[in-house]
């Protein structure tokens, strides 16, 4: 992996429409124009500038046209990924605005970087170690992605860098609705004032939960619901997450080498996870090489009348994500000349037997299912087409359980390990043992 940065990327874009702007201060104008009021004149832009709404699109079009001309392949499924096969292998360019991650063997990366430098002013940043706040550690046994620097930064920002660490991100919720610490604010409770940075804390935690820390996805989703009316209870829940991060700041996702890179999915639903609004929770996670690559924890938008109903809704969401993941992986594999997963279905694990039986038979209008919309049986069509295969798994082994409910510490740690979360110090110590074995 090689990282390159485009210097002043937006200035390379050519405008597709006429745009005029006011004459800025310091702009040299002729004496003839000076005789008239300054506000009577404007200048026409020939190139895009930073600040224009269409600058990003114009830069992407310029880069895309330049790469496609050289034989790179692009697909609307993943428009910011460009792939080219060569006699020595392949090269993949992943674009994020002006940051270009180039993946391939050494010779292909050198040729690609030289080709880009012919057209754009580029900065060579070497092996990818820091990109978009993600820290990437390269080991002989695999690649480790974490955000320890970001965690340390937000802990200091919210004065939690010296807090006592905890072993789980949230307390186990009470079955008594009136004693649930995550219940909505009550009429006699005082709301937090603007001096408490609740919204900022939730935003900072959401970035973590979406990128490298799926272990806090459920509790962050839970606390984000009260952003408009937070109370002291909710703020204590946010501080609980910070204390958990204090003890696990070096935790991240480890993608090991030498394992079979098969895509697997796990789906689960927490029935009446929000008893105050009579809503359930959808949770799913997809792993590749036994490490999470996509996950989601979200409250369902409709009332589920049974646990079976909520599970059908959860599998529907997971199957939609599965279709996109499969299509993107197939495009990359076929463009790179690698073995494709097109002929083998993606296994989607679910722990509700009744839900699996219904999905295998399709929508049947009966007393138990007539209220469920047929569109939620989309997974049945995918099974018929051989794209997914829904299989039953024990609830204790369902990795998606992590995204639907608060769990005891031992169960929580087992599931986080199952989705590929590791500590940097543990990986580094294993790496040291392999390089320098102890002799007796």
From TrEMBL:
Domain of life the protein comes from: Eukaryota
Q: Which residues form the Reverse transcriptase Ty1/copia-type domain?
A: 1-171
Q: What Pfam families would the database entry show?
A: RVT_2
Q: Which InterPro entries match?
A: DNA/RNA_pol_sf, RVT_2
Q: Which SUPFAM superfamilies match?
A: DNA/RNA polymerases
Q: What is this protein called?
A: Reverse transcriptase Ty1/copia-type domain-containing protein
What CDD domains does the record point to?
RNase_HI_RT_Ty1
Give the species this sequence originates from.
Answer: Stephania yunnanensis
